[in-house]
Amino acid sequence: MSGVLSNIWRHPLKSHGREELDHANLNVAQAMPWDRHWAVLHDSSKKVTDNEGWMSCLNFSRGSKAPALMAINANFDENKKELTLSHPEIGNVRFQPNSEEGQKKFLEWVMPICPQDRALPSGIYELPERGLTDTPYASISINNHSSNRAVGQILGYEVSPLRWRGNLWFDGLAPWEEFDWIGMDLRVGSVELHVKERIERCLATTANPDTGVRDADTLKALNSRGHQDFGVYAVVTKTGSITLGDRLEIL
Q1: pTM score, whole prediction
Q2: What domains appear along the chain, each with residue ranges and CATH number?
Q3: What's the CA gap between 87 and 74, in Å, rounded?
């Protein structure tokens, strides 16, 4: 089947909000620009990095441990380097993640929705271009709306695609077709990508992206199919641009 690019998302501050785009420029061996550019360190972070400065998600505050974070929306002003976050319980905050004052402002804002019996947010860590993706390589996550609908059919109700925190979403594919692409090359717009692996999912997906309350057993639904995977990770192999409506081509 022929897929069409229907949504583009980035997450400037890892696990703290999503922002929808209508186009993006992707570069070889890099994450989507400004996607997971920053992450929130917690007070138990070991801060062990690889030679690119990447750290495991275990060092950061995330939705699997603090489900209320899943209800955050984001808007990033690239010119001002200013991030605006909004949440239904605590309202809005606007700050510059790279400034000491901005980080203090953010920490005061987010603390009320963080479980007090777990490691608490303590600062913001930056990794330009490479991005703090969950993979130890700079990845783009690709997701299939038909697969999301299939999860909803298992659960018996509609599931928001925002639970999966994906970058690229496609319509017009068969359910779970994306799992057949492992090891294959794709073209979207003028960008080429190599699909590396399936994405194993965590408790973050059980939280409602409107409320931040855990209300869907997405992991049980996935495991009923014999796995806990949704979507695939890919790496950019040819620099180019993508725009909503671009068709997906398997090379």
Answers
A1: 0.96
A2: 4-28+135-250 (2.40.33.20), 38-126 (no CATH)
A3: 9
